[in-house]
Amino acid sequence: MMRSFITMLLVAIGVAVSSWSIAYAANLETYKFDDPKKEALFRELIDELRCPKCQNQTIGDSDAPLAKDLRDRTYMMIQQGASKQEVVDYMVARYGDFAYYRPPVKLSTVVLWLGPVVVILVGAGVILMRVRSRNNAEVELSEQEQAQLATLRDSESSDSKQDKSS
Q: How far apart are alpha carbons 162 and 86 in whole angstroms?
């Protein structure tokens, strides 16, 4: 009973995964190119342009209707002879710098470029300050703890003297 359930579950997962990959492949096969350079440019662009709706997927990875429209627009522009930069400029003009996975360095995008570096530097500074403050803090021992420490030191020094004489 359990074995057949696991088998059925694995078959269902396999079918689902294969249908997703078939759907993705079919999605890209609908675009016909006479020139392999244009096809390569198309594939490069759909992997560099971000879906404005999905936000963390390229227009090539997204199943959103908007991503499909952007793929169609990219295809049409490439077929009409547009360069990579012209397609990127069109998408950026329409959807902002966010639409391109490699935004240009300018005042409005400086946070995207410097933000991660600043966060890492601040984190390293905080860690360094905490480690230094722990090392500089002197620990005061009570009289009882000082006596125990003296006893341990005496026993350790007598043990090391016995080891050397052996």
A: 84
Residue of 72, 69, 77, 47 lying closest to 60 (CA atoms): 47
Taking residue 51's Cβ as centre, other Cβ atoms within 10 Å add up to 23
pLDDT digits (tens, 9 = 90+) for 84-119: 999 999 999 998 888 887 777 788 778 877 888 999
Would you tell me how many other CB atoms lie within 10 Å of the CB of residue 38?
A: 15
Domain definitions of the chain by residue range:
10-104, 112-165
Q: What is the dotted CATH code of the domain comprising 10-104?
A: 1.10.8.640
Each residue's pLDDT tens digit, 48-77: 998 888 878 889 888 889 999 999 999 999
